[in-house]
Structure formats: C-alpha cells, structure tokens
Amino acid sequence: MKRISFFLLLFTLGATPGLRGQDAATEERLNKLSGQIEDLIAGQKAQQKHLADLAKELESVREQAAKPTGNYANQEDVCNRVIRWLDSHLKENAP
Known about the structure:
With 95 residues, the protein is mostly helical. It has two helices and no strands. It has helices at residues 2-66, 75-92.
C-alpha cells in the first residue's frame, strides 16, 4: 500500500510540470484566439459602420434623383419655340 501511495505521489509530482507546460501552451493559444476574435469583431463593426454610411449616401442620391431639375421643356414650351422658329423663317422668306 505504501508503494502505491509513493508511486502515486511521484506520478502526481512528476506530471505537474508537464501539465503546467500544457497549461501555458493552452493559455497562449487561447490568448491568440481571443485576439483574433477581437480583431474580427472590430472589423465587423467597421464594416457595419461603412455599410451604414453607404446606405445614407444611397438614400441621399435617391432623394436627389427624385427631385425634378427644372431644366426640361414641357409641351407648351416646345410648341412656342417651333412657332417662333417658323415665324422667323417665314419672315425671312416672305416676298
């Protein structure tokens, strides 16, 4: 019984540095993963902000496109111009 306890004690003490080494490596990997996750979250937030800015800009462009510019001729304006043009040509060619 003493032998088993002694071997168990030796095994426990001998395995502890190995476990500590594994814990350090595991902790390092976890820290690395944690940093990568934080980078991904920051990147996602930046993309969301950029997407929101693009949505605002698109809405602004849509509003500008919906407003009439006022630089177009309606049917009455076209008719008046044609009449003036015909009048001027008829006056030039009148005997």
